[in-house]
Design brief:
alpha+beta; CRO Repressor; 2 domains; four-stranded antiparallel sheet; 7 helices; 7 strands; about 15% strand
């Protein structure tokens, strides 16, 4: 469109663009066709496409959006071409799933591996930095599962699909409290101070007393707080 063809208040151009009014009906039919075709293709891709998406599945979904958009909106694009590309995406996705099932190395290459973020009540800072996960994100996940003390956690995994898996200890140990420090009025019922124990505010490592100049034996930090222990908690081996 030329610059001189653009005029303020040209509502016909704003509403219809350069296409005739009859194309609106064609867009409706094109959209219906592509919508049904997309539902069929996604259904054939498997149940995972309707749940938490993996990296490859997310890439396929973005690709599907790019495939169907021209077929619905552009009059010069034929529907048969879009349908062929949809079928190619289906074959690619199913082929990738087959390769991931047959070859573990390929699965690790395409999906990644799970990462341990907490081990025996201690934050794994190197893995957190590698996966770009902050302490507050981890604490929020644990609080949402009614876990308010790092000493209650045996393992926290960040799965390859992006979900968190939490495994609690059968017997809670002393650890770092997970209540927000800015909320002084929070009810800490169910937690009590662990006498003679301190917890590193950086990684959660507990010690019988605050270390000297060397700081935390795990991360070297010098910020310590009173360790606490859960006294009333319904323990689940996996939550």
């Amino acid at each position: 469109m030329r610059k001189q063809d653009i005029a303020a208040g040209d509502f016909y151009r704003i509403l219809f663009g350069e296409t005739p009014e009859i194309f609106l009906l064609e867009v409706l039919l094109r959209t219906l066709f592509m919508y049904v075709a997309l539902l069929v293709v996604v259904r054939l891709m498997g149940k995972r496409m309707g749940g938490q998406l993996t990296i490859s599945e997310l890439a396929v979904m973005v690709t599907l959006g790019a495939i169907v958009s021209p077929g619905m909106q552009m009059p010069q694009t034929g529907l048969l071409l879009c349908l062929v590309i949809l079928l190619c995406a289906l074959i690619f996705q199913r082929g990738t799933n087959w390769l991931e099932f047959r070859f573990r190395k390929f699965e690790e290459l395409s999906q990644g591996k799970n990462t341990t973020l907490i081990e025996d009540g201690v934050l794994q800072l190197a893995q957190m930095q590698k996966t770009k996960v902050s302490r507050q994100q981890i604490f929020a996940v644990l609080r949402s599962k009614h876990i308010y003390n790092l000493g209650q956690v045996e393992r926290l995994y960040l799965e390859a699909c992006g979900l968190f898996s939490v495994y609690t200890r059968s017997e809670p140990a002393a650890g770092l409290l997970l209540f927000p420090p800015s909320d002084q009025s929070v009810n800490t019922f169910g937690q009590q101070s662990a006498a003679g124990m301190s917890a590193c505010a950086n990684c959660g490592k507990t010690a019988e007393r605050t270390p000297g100049p060397g700081g935390c034996p795990i991360c070297g930090a010098h910020q310590w707080g009173q360790a606490s222990i859960a006294i009333q908690e319904k323990q689940n081996r996996a939550s």
